[in-house]
Amino acid sequence: xxxxxxxxxxxxxxxxxxxxxxxxxxxxxxxxxxxxxxxxxxxxxxxxxxxxxxxxxxxxxxxxxxxxxxxxxxxxxxxxxxxxxxxxxxxxxxxxxxxxxxxxxxxxxxxxxxxxxxxxxxxxxxxxxxxxxxxxxxxxxxxxxxxxxxxxxxxxxxxxxxxxxxxxxxxxxxxxxxxxxxxxxxxxxxxxxx
Length: 194
Ligand code: FNR
Fold this sequence. Notes:
Elements: E1 7-13, H1 21-32, E2 37-41, H2 53-58, H3 62-72, E3 76-81, H4 90-100, E4 111-117, H5 125-137, E5 141-142, E6 148-150, E7 157-158, E8 163-164, H6 167-193
Parallel strand pairs: 1-2, 1-3, 3-4, 4-5, 4-6
Antiparallel strand pairs: 7-8
The chain binds ligand FNR.
């Protein structure tokens, strides 16, 4: 009988809002994970100062180091974020800018899945493609499909109860997490063979 190798994913949340729809998605992920996969939330991107090379020269902020280490130790990252003005929220971009300056850069070679939720019709699709562009420079391995873009999210996510109320949405997210697990395991196999 073959044994499933356990995987550990971490979640990077792009919203700071307490009542965030994306926060509900992020916190639902552990219960939607496939067998053998654990999922843990990273710290808040709100704990990072504005990126400033002079500040960096004084030493990497502790919150940046902690997040970089947690990402580096993981088997994959799930970025869950709103779309702001057709792009990535500033707080998330700021966090990515800091993380890109840590050595070793923790996203290099890391499997990454993206999820966005929005009250709008197309669910944050434009932010996803800006995020993909940023992550190319990080040399991350971004999962192509399925793409989780939760449109009209007010009808699918109950922010008061803190749950994804639409079963179809929850099931679709499950399929993406399973695909990320497959990508992560496939990449480990390649590492072993090469
Ligand atoms: C938004 N919102 C938004 N929605 C969208 O689908 N496309 C967009 O370009 C934008 N732009 C935008 C800019 C700014 C500054 C704000 C504050 C909001 C709406 C956004 O999707 C909505 O507020 C979500 O509820 C934000 O996500 P959280 O915080 O609920 O996770």
